[in-house]
Amino acid sequence: MMITTTINRPDVNAKIVYFGKLLKSAVFEDYGNSFNIEHLDNPDEFKNYLDSRSLLSLPDIILIEVDDNKDCFEQISYIKNNPLLHGLIIVLLGIKEDREWRSRALKLKVNDYYTYPFPIEDFYERLNFLIKFKLIKPKLLELAKQMDVEYQTPLTKRVFDVVASGCALLCLMPLFIIVAILIRLESKGAVIYKSKRVGAGYKIFDFFKFRSMKSGADQMIGSIADLNQYSNESNSKNGKAAFVKFKNDPRITKLGAFLRRTSIDELPQLINVFIGDMSLVGNRPLPLYEAEQLTTNEWSTRFLGPAGLTGLWQISKRGKADMSETERKELDNYYAANYSILLDMKIILKTIPALIQKESV
Length: 361
Fold this sequence. Notes:
Blueprint: E1 2-7, E2 15-19, H1 24-28, E3 35-40, H2 43-51, E4 61-65, H3 72-80, E5 89-94, H4 99-107, E6 112-115, H5 120-147, H6 155-186, E7 192-198, E8 204-210, H7 254-261, H8 269-275, E9 279-281, E10 286-287, H9 288-291, E11 308-310, H10 312-316, H11 325-338, H12 341-354
Parallel strand pairs: 2-3, 2-4, 4-5, 5-6, 9-11
Antiparallel strand pairs: 1-3, 7-8, 7-10
């Protein structure tokens, strides 16, 4: 039997298929109309439903319950191995926490895994983000293809990056171990935080940092948007600030505040430098939601230069409230048009005194 309901999330036009019945009433109770939800209770309906879809009638998200669903991981594998279904967003829901299930889900690269009870509003914000990411990613990938021939890291810069980052990683290994232990002692969660960033030529890569925030911090962005120091500027695309930087961010842990003040949280990016995702000096790689705001001719110039661990922004007014969004974009464009080994060495020498920040951003 298929029952159609809707939930009140007006920001996103999305079609969702929910497979399961244990959490159906708990998750979708008290919500009105925006997401188009189809509920599938019968395990036999799962494959038949997907097989009957065309490219135009596929859902955007499929929610699958793990508990009392012995075919859960076979269902995920079926989706991942089908070229037509490969882009489907998969979110798992469960009642009991099971490390083995979560590990298997991680290996299968599902988009998220929730264990009930969880904040329903945060859950819907996450679905919103996944839908927006799905819409933005092809646009960014297309830009990456167009700009690939326009930017290549100069050989001398790449050699310097590999040698310098490799030596730094070897020397800092004891510090990495100590920081990792302290992070795990203070709060639960991964030691290294990974996020998708957009670098030179709009290329998307995994960006590494020591975790300085509470688990689930990404889902809290909407609730603290008023703390963004760039939110009052109105000259951005669609009226949104292109950059997001929070003052006195409530998501930061006590140890995380220290790691940020000393910039120790940034040290894992030496791995990004070593493997070629970014350079020691360049424009900061941006989160997807920021990069999407900078695709106009005026501001896309920044992506014609290297992404970097440090740059002109860091040594100018990093963390200061009087650093406007326009100023930061102009600095990025200037570096992309004028970078050189000499300029890089000047920036590296000025970076050390700029590491200790006065502002909590």
